[in-house]
Amino acid sequence: MPLNALAQERIQAGDISINVTSIAGSLENPWSVEVLPDSAYIVTEKPGRIRIIRDGKTSEPLTGLPEIRVAGQGGLLDIALSPDFAESRSLYFTASVAGEGGHGTAVFSARLAANESGLEDVKRIFVMNKLTGTGQHFGSRIAIAADGSLYFGIGDRGEMDRAQDPKDHAGSILHIKPDGTPGSGNPFAENGQGAPEIWSVGHRNPQGITIDPADNSLYTVEHGARGGDEINSPKAGSNYGWPTISYGKHYSGAEIGVGQAADGYEQPLHYWDPSIAPGAISVYRGAMFPEWNGDFLVAALKYQLLARIDRMDDGSIGTEERLLTGDYGRIRDVKVAPDGSILLVTDEQDGQLIRLSRADAS
To answer: What are the catalytic residues?
Structure first.
């Protein structure tokens, strides 16, 4: 059941007592949250709104957003603060937009106005190269590398064979500079054998992406079909298999591709069968829960939970612990806050921003 705003409950995760606090409610299908330098929160809502939450109060929607195509799984999606946000007030966001042929995923840069009433200097720095009328698998989250470049994912747009075409942005992880030009190290930027913005291919619908701050490794979490949700660590030029290999099946029950493995295709670090319908992914690096250092945190929609996946010192995958199952609705985003607490948003018409904190440290 949703908590009332600023209400608190307590749960147990093994020996750890955790406070679950609703920071804000009455958010319409919130999709992403980031923490501003003064510890306020900036949140996107899928229907096309950005709000700031400070001291328990939720702002009016920010002005200045571009026209966004809200249809099916599309709308206003992720938001990410530039590493120099405290000085520049620069940020990025992803959204579905309309154009010739239909609609698809785009990336925008902008600056938060000094009075926080709206966005300024909004620029579309990227739009996928083939728009269609399908309403699913837009991706799309952003991870910002140490050099300021952006990694983000776009799903196959419901047309699975597109994920194996290196000249099609659909079904790929992409890598661009802050001005939208191809990022350094992209595999096709020089040889012309694929789109220059593409980093890796064979992804069904990556809705989570993160960079581990400890070693700068890139990780994604991706929706499978009926089973086959995956965690991957995309490398430049690699092929992650969809739809040639998969640990899931079609919704009809039919087999997918040639099976679970084949030469030339990468294996996931971890997969789920049955599917949990993952939202976002983070690597826990924080002081509040040192027992979880280096573990994956994965938001899940279908089972309405937060999965904590233990990682060994060598990076191998250990056991999975499931928290909050069915208690607060569909969990879309998960972020580790600067103080080590964990932030979640629930993808509901009456969605919430929720904070998890250690009961003896909050």
So the answer is: 137
